[in-house]
Please model this.
Amino acid sequence: MLTVDVGGTKIAAAVVGTTGEILAKSRGASPDSSDEVVLVDAVEHVAREALAEAGARAHDMEALGVSCAGIINTHDGVVVYSPNVAALRRTPLKAMLAERFELPVWLGNDATLAALGEWEFGLHRSVQDLVYVTVSTGIGGGIICGGRLLEGSCGAGGEVGHMTIDIDGPKCACGRTGCWEALGSGTALAERTVRRLEDGEVSIIGELSGGDMENVDAQIVAIAARQGDALAQEMIDVTAFYVGVGLGNLINIFNPSVLVIGGGLTKIGDPLLVPAANVARERAYMTSACEVEILTARLGDESPLLGAAALVWGLYGGKW
Amino acid sequence: MLTVDVGGTKIAAAVVGTTGEILAKSRGASPDSSDEVVLVDAVEHVAREALAEAGARAHDMEALGVSCAGIINTHDGVVVYSPNVAALRRTPLKAMLAERFELPVWLGNDATLAALGEWEFGLHRSVQDLVYVTVSTGIGGGIICGGRLLEGSCGAGGEVGHMTIDIDGPKCACGRTGCWEALGSGTALAERTVRRLEDGEVSIIGELSGGDMENVDAQIVAIAARQGDALAQEMIDVTAFYVGVGLGNLINIFNPSVLVIGGGLTKIGDPLLVPAANVARERAYMTSACEVEILTARLGDESPLLGAAALVWGLYGGKW
Model:
């Protein structure tokens, strides 16, 4: 199985064996172009590198599974809109890639497929009700309900990052106000920190970022927090609170047995995850809060690549 | 099939025929007691009235389907907690009713079963992805994902009313702040109106309620709005906005083909439903917003009674 993962900064590809082992892998930067053909060229290039690495050819593969950031209409195989991949707008990515590789192509949202990967290969389907949330530049999610992927009527289900949690909150990149992503993402953490630094607050974050506010990101704030920096610790606490509020909503709505948190912000570790989990449990109804196990993702960056494989096998096997 | 619906103010029972027709019906007030045995006595009484009305006996029935307000652990058949039915707290309602009627009993949350009723008998399963929301004293919901009821790990899924939509918002009856129910329910509408009247605002609502603030409810506000009362119209607009915010969240999360709105507040009609639907579509991502059809519930008060029948048949038939 050949799979690719198309994101805002990178493209990754893998040849995946029948038990979910990655036989070969390749990655490259996403092209800085708004031309969808340039992007598809880059995807083809990275995928063919993975094939070469595995000593295989496209027609040895049974299918191509594609994970992509953005809002995807899985019925039509079209990327409707992708906030972080400017080249993709009403792009018939499935059809374009099918032509390049002469393979059946299956396309899904990256967070949705990461959920599927974590469920299939991280948890070996040991649970039937799973909510996966990725907290990174943005916030995305994927949901398994009763042992099946929540797809929705056109495959756009699981878009949890733009759930309003604070109607009077800050403006989100999507144009609305108070989205979970605008309050709990890594971007929100960095922006909130920069505002405080610009207001003259003393912190070693200034030093760690070389005095350039553009360099302030979640990782630098995490390093500062580990060194005991008060501002950094406060910023992580505030972000953890907002992450927890959204998680609590999802626990109430889905009553999952497992909630898996992935994405870059999990690298902050316990200082973020423990308070976020506590807030989530406090804000959810007791029955659902008691029932849920909160875990960090096991597959890391490979979850969408593996989830894309699980998608294809699942569809072939008629499992969902 | 015998079904009952246990709510905060009333208990209803029905004998339901195999195609969903109601052959006999009975109803009574919920007892004003915190004793669960008194409540179960009342449920038995109403159910036996419906049986008598149908000229049937309990052992003619294949099962008893029970709809109940509150948080329910469907695995154990226990009502964990019910904000509006004080007698129910960790009550093994399924076991208690099974003993009374010597029938297999199936128990579900009233909003969840209303969703199932609307899907099965209102829409005849013409869609696979449905979100049902009841906006009444509180806000509840039930969800069909990919043609199956969303139950969650212990049957408490679909608890949408306590989704935080305004983290700094008013306190909810559940003890948390900014829940959808605390902002968009009929109770919230009435409380908001009373505060404005107490602040001395001029409105015919005062007159319609006989000068007693206790009488102010959504129906009186609706009557005043139809007579052109400015405060009443504003209160309905504000409520419609909050209803719409929560609906928008659910459209993003579930990407449903149909969203059904039921509950007492739908009696206000277009002045509430049209702006609420508009806000919901504006706040949801375009793909999902374009896809969803927003409808009012078709079965009215009977939806939980019919949903309880659908639950039993579905389980017997192994459909979900």
Observations:
- The first strand of chain A starts at residue 2 and ends at 6.
- Chain A has two domains: 2-109, 124-297.
